[in-house]
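Bit of a strange request maybe. I'm writing a small parser for structure token strings and I need a real example to test against, not something I typed by hand. Could someone generate the tokens for this chain?
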Amino acid sequence: MKLILKLLAGMALGILLGLYAPDPAQSLLLTFKGLFGQFIGFMIPLIIVFYIMHGIASLESGSGRMLGWTVGLAYGSTVLSGALAFGAASTVLPQWVGEAAQAPVAASAIAPLFKLEIKPLFDVMTALTLAFVFGLGISATGATRLHELAEQGKDIVEKVLARVLVPLLPAYIACVFADMAAAGTAFATLQTFAVVLLLAIGLHALWLTLLYGVSGLLLGRNPLSLLRAMLPAYFTALGTMSSAATIPVALRSAGNMKVASPVVNFVMPLCATIHLCGSTITLVSCATAVMLMTPGLALPGWDVMLPFILLLGVTMVAAPGAPGGGVMAALGILSSVLGFPEAALALMIALYLAQDSFGTACNVAGDGVIALWVERLTLRAEPAMQNG
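Reply from user aminoacidic:
Good idea to test on real output. This should exercise your parser:
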């Protein structure tokens, strides 16, 4: 919650600086904005490689059927929630995104003090392929040293995220909004932000209603009782903004739904890193809005968005536990698949962080449904299969 307050303060300060700061101060802001944007671009492939490689390599290959159902259900929920978000956002948002937010911005006479290009080690698709090849290879061969390398690389990247990128994001957003305020588009952008955030939170509620309503109907359980049992985990995630930090409460809440202990202890920690329905809803909704707001970006059809959502479901696996980790992991495919320029990526970061706690809470509450179905499809299915 502190990060959200800092982000809002950064937006306000950036608008004031963009409207009233002298030209030399704005040149300094543009310099920081350019350097930080280059550093983010450099870190994106490293985030993808080490987090996805470590996440795949850490899956317990000996868990068999339970692992397969958990991963399949979590990925299916993530993809379907993303499809719902794009369907709703592409229908609703074009009516609400104002012309001022879409208008091309005239070139500013103010320039940064200097520019520095920091090239990433490899592009995003290379990073994804590398992560899959080595992650699956480590899981199949049990390569201990490579697993340690993936884990240590993940730890280093997480330190950079937690101590450099995330703390400096409010300053970066302030520079972005200073630039927009100087160009005259900041207030139209903020108006669009409010609409997108309300839409995303509404879609979170709709998705959880669908998950628990359909599951309760098919499993013969009371959906309201199931949702009530998961409320402590939901509100804990709302405050911590971290699925990992909510695991102890999530375990207890899933147990209160009368899910078997072996399933709870396996599914809930695993889903904290692979089931990201709420984060996916937010990312797809925000991406749709940013494409509508950004000159030169056209809203694509399902032929582009469906592959994007499928990739997003994979890229978000084992996204860092630090607040904002989900959007940092997704920046790569936003730029490579949807063609987002640096300014659009900055808007994505601001939009995502403004509601990160609600997306995380939706993720955690949705994990309870995965546990219900895994129990039904594994533990309770075995006696029926034996009797047959």
